[in-house]
What does this fold into?
Amino acid sequence: MDGMGILKGLSVTLKRFVDTYLEDLKWLMKGQKRYYTEEGIAQRRSTEARGIFTVQYPEEKLPVPEEFRFIPFLLYDEDENGERQVRCTSCGICAKVCPPQCIWIVRTSDPKTGRPVPEPAEFYIDVDICMNCGFCSEYCPFDAIKMDHDYELSVYNRHAKNIYNQEKLLKPVSYYADIRPANYQREEQARAEAEAAKAARRQKAN
Ligand code: SF4
Ligand code: SF4
It folds into this structure.
């Protein structure tokens, strides 16, 4: 019969509409929140979802996997006095491997001797050009640059705002540990093992 498809479609919509309220009521009676909570989002993404299954963006956001990558950032450690220790040595490897060439680094030099100092005087990334390949992070020998998870970077004036300088790019190691815990653990372990091997070699030589 003509129009059966339309009726079937409408019945699916109506069922979802009713299910949404029934499901909301069920959660309410259990004393749980179905919206704006991790459990609520996870449930709506699962095969158990009844009624509404969409995410209420921007109030709710889908969790991103650890390996999600969006625009690099620079890492700094904090010493015992709370001073920033920028990990970058301005070796320039990331700028060399960057396929669209969107990294600029100005090296620091000692004002007295003119010799290079292993820290960047300036560091820029044009985030409009960055293609989020992650090469800079893969190749950095000092774990000084990592890919971020923050994808909400829209601005009104991209020409003025989207060339990130060092200040904008710098984030603490604790932030990195937070967004990429498995990577952080692996790197810290490798670092500790390398230190231990170095100490053992030194001891042997003495
Ligand atoms: S971020 Fe890493 S690869 Fe790039 S200049 Fe700094 S130390 Fe070198
Ligand atoms: S993620 Fe890729 S494109 Fe972006 S700065 Fe790093 S190397 Fe360049």
